[in-house]
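Page 37, top half.
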Amino acid sequence: MAPQRRHPAPTAPMACSLLLLALCLAPPAHGSRVQPTATTSKAPPAPVPAPPPPASKATTTAPPESDEFLAPHNKARAEVGVAALRWSAGLASAAAKTTSQQQRQSGCAFADMGASAYGANQGWASYRARPGEVVGSWVAQARYYTHANNSCAAGQQCGTYTQVVWRRTTDVGCAQATCGTGATLTLCLYDPHGNVKGESPY
């Protein structure tokens, strides 16, 4: 009997790697790595807090250079003919206070921003995500948004993208917190807020 030939194991397709990355980035209790905050509905409450990491391993960082946040915001806005945002130290300070609180009390879970006077975009990653990467994940929702009828594809989210490009928003401030596990929570606040029900972002 002729010996059986061993076939090499098939190489995993790239789509699998991307899917694993998406699952890796997803916050455990929310199922998506970015959470839009709309002014028309209350943001979902933070998930059950995880045990806080040891204080010696947890760090709260002030926002990196503002351009790391501003550049991807303003690139997306320029693409739809909307004026550039200004960096707000006051909004950045408020965002830093919130992310620091979430770090200490909720294991870097999403904050409940339902009562905030500002618009808010949040992002969670299981590693130390760079600002541009997080903002890029919000802007990526543009592929689901149709401006002609101001709609979002069924089963998708567009709220973080529409806040980024909301025409009447003029100022933004952002912050990040890193937990002892290495997870990163990112929060950007916007003034005036966007995502007003029934209105088009631009």
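Page 37, bottom half:
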Amino acid sequence: MFFKIFVITAIFKVVTGQTRLDPLVNADVGLIKGLRGDDGDYSMFLGIPFGKVDEENPFSAATPYPKFDNTFEAFNDTTVCPQVEESQGTITGTPDCLVLNVYVPFSASSSNRLPVLVWIYGGGFMYGDGNRYLYNPSFLMTTMWTNFVKYGDPTPQTSDLIQIQWTPIKNLSQIPYLNIDSELSLGGRPFHRRVTFWDLFYRANYDNLLTAQNPLEI
């Protein structure tokens, strides 16, 4: 699918007291409205159908999806191909799952075309999907990886995006670690209970460890 024009249109809605800006593109198949990324300067267009499956013969070649009569709202990335839901052992999904997610930096436009990375999620042809909660171009992660390559430190300084700084290890009893979740946080000692157990075990058996001739005798 070729995106010809990238236009930001102001759709004024009251969402938690803020103005919402929805991105809109004019593609070969019609107008497609997306969402703004909430963790960086990019837009996302989710669940865009690109092919139709013959339900009577799902393994036959798919046909191109017809053009949209109205603006397609690309807000939903929950479509899953048929597979076994591991925790329940039940079959879930739909054969009509030929959709794609497109992530576009704000800097992209018809006059400023950028390289395109095409990525297909894994799963061994048995399970998986491309939802944005597992696979998204997190601006936070991109920034930290860039910092690590440039400075050897994912948080060399604080900013509006990265508001904490990972401090170096100074005391082995308090090992600072960076917890990367929906929000960044710092911890004092990873897996505290497990590490404490092995510390106590080591201290209690230190003499035996030094004098044992055969590890099986410990």
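Margin note: Confidence is low (pLDDT under 50) at residues 1-20.
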